[in-house]
Amino acid sequence: MIRLNKKEEDIMNIFWKLKKAFPKEIMESITPPIPPYNTVLSMIRKLEKDGFISHVKVGKTHQYSPTITKRTYQKSIFKHLLTGYFGGSPEKMLSFFIKEENLSEEELNDIVKQFRKKK
Description:
Layout: H1 6-18, H2 23-29, H3 37-49, E1 53-58, E2 61-66, H4 70-85, H5 90-100, H6 105-118
Antiparallel strand pairs: 1-2
Helix pairs in contact: 1-3, 2-3
């Protein structure tokens, strides 16, 4: 799966939140600075070409909806980070995250507790 740029991810987050939307609704949901309508429409078309969204024709316009879940995209990005930057080692990635975010022992214990609850 390809990696989206920041603006494309912003638009996908709107689609994931709204479930389906017309371009006008996407425009209304974008946080400022809001790009021109034609720019947003071009990004929507690119997202559709890349397989992230699809459309149905409603009157003279199109209503778009995501074709992949946010979770699927997150897993793809996570896998890319894990293999591309940490040699496929979850331990190296977790260690980096702990150091980079300066997590306290208490925060780490909370994470372990949450992990054990989910098992």
